[in-house]
Amino acid sequence: MAILDQLTSQQAIDLENKYGAHNYHPLPVVLNRGEGVYVWDVEGKKYYDFLSAYSAVNQGHSHPKIVNAMVKQAQTLALTSRAFHNDMLGKYEKFACEFFGFDKLLPMNTGAEAVETALKLCRKWAYEVKGIDENKAEIIVCENNFHGRTTTIISFSNDPVARKNFGPYTNGFIKIEYNNIEALEATLKANSNVAGFLVEPIQGEAGVYVPNDDYLTKAKALCEKYNVLFIADEVQTGIARTGRLLATCGNCSCETKNCDKSPDVKPDVLILGKAISGGVYPVSAVLANNNVMDVIKPGNHGSTFGGNPVAAAVAMAALEVVRDENLAENAYKLGDLFRSELNDYIKTSNIVNLVRGKGLLNAILINDDEESDTAWNICLALRDNGLLAKPTHGNIIRFAPPLVMTEAQLLDCVSIIKKTLKQFEN
Ligand SMILES: *Cc1c(COP(=O)(O)O)cnc(C)c1O
């Protein structure tokens, strides 16, 4: 078989199964093209993408402005390493700092690397600024978190599938219940060695758990009171996904006025990834003000690819698209429409219990237990009906389309989803 021959779906799946490590369980569909809100499989069938590569493709597949920026920069200068300066990194750092309202940015590539960076930054700040005794710093995290796959990060996961037989684990983390402000206060009060609180503004992987409207505000106030860094992992919720530039919003240049229900909360450390590149290239970043970021000195941390010229060009273009195409506003408006349509359906449904989310980060809860394969089978039927989504946990299906969707397209998707769910009503 010549490499360039067009494979059938089955041939492509067989190759992955034989030669690839089995670390994922993909929906059986083999894609070879994407544009905007659509993807196509190798047989030419067209689908709405309702996962957006876990919210990396907020700007839509192969956005021409982002792809052009990438191609142009790749043809000019792709990688210098940080041993030398390049003429794109500083421009990008200034752009992103002004965009999100922070003093400094530390560039990395993947979300997990950015989370690791934030943890290291937080610990160093704890010893050098807060004055915690060496090796004693603790970072508070939440139950059912998802922050990535490195050894340290899975050390404070409570997903047995992600953890088991990967020990020994990294110490220095205290796990508390999500959306429980009393638990946070009690932990801060009881322990003077706490350096930071790492939190997802909405728990995406856990099944799109939206905390109470005042949770983040109160958590931030407690962090201030106890001199602890509030670290927001916005790898999934950031970049307009939830109807605001950031789910925490913060002191950002966001044009939307959708901060009514959950007021601005400015993280001390902001972690971004996924859609900061529009999904065309791995780009991640940690942002903080000087009082925190300045603890990092030459040699303390780094990455060969972090902050490379292509990443810088791509991220600037991707953020411009978010601003110029009003993606936060669109996500806010379409999200409301989506949930109200689904809520209408749920009134008479036996198979769906509820829809929840913010902006275009939503999930439905299937009326069956976690071990059942109902949600998986619904996703297979959605695929057959032209829409791609995937269960997060056994009985939860996440719906997160690209934010460049139009209202007409969204209503088309809603009718596909309703039609599919009807096949499963009894
Ligand atoms: C996806 C994700 C990560 C990890 O990002 P990778 O690029 O896969 O390493 C971290 N935190 C959150 C909230 C995520 O959704």
From TrEMBL:
Q: What is its EC number?
A: 2.6.1.13
According to its UniProt entry, the protein's GO biological process terms are: L-arginine catabolic process to L-glutamate; L-arginine catabolic process to proline via ornithine; L-proline biosynthetic process
Q: Which UniProt keywords apply?
A: Aminotransferase, Pyridoxal phosphate, Transferase
What are its cofactors? pyridoxal 5'-phosphate
Pathway assignment reads: Amino-acid biosynthesis; L-proline biosynthesis; L-glutamate 5-semialdehyde from L-ornithine: step 1/1
Q: Which InterPro entries match?
A: Aminotrans_3 (IPR005814), Class-III_PLP-dep_AT (IPR050103), Orn_aminotrans (IPR010164), PyrdxlP-dep_Trfase (IPR015424), PyrdxlP-dep_Trfase_major (IPR015421), PyrdxlP-dep_Trfase_small (IPR015422)
Highest taxon of the source? Bacteria
Q: Which family does it belong to?
A: Belongs to the class-III pyridoxal-phosphate-dependent aminotransferase family.
Q: What is this protein called?
A: ornithine aminotransferase
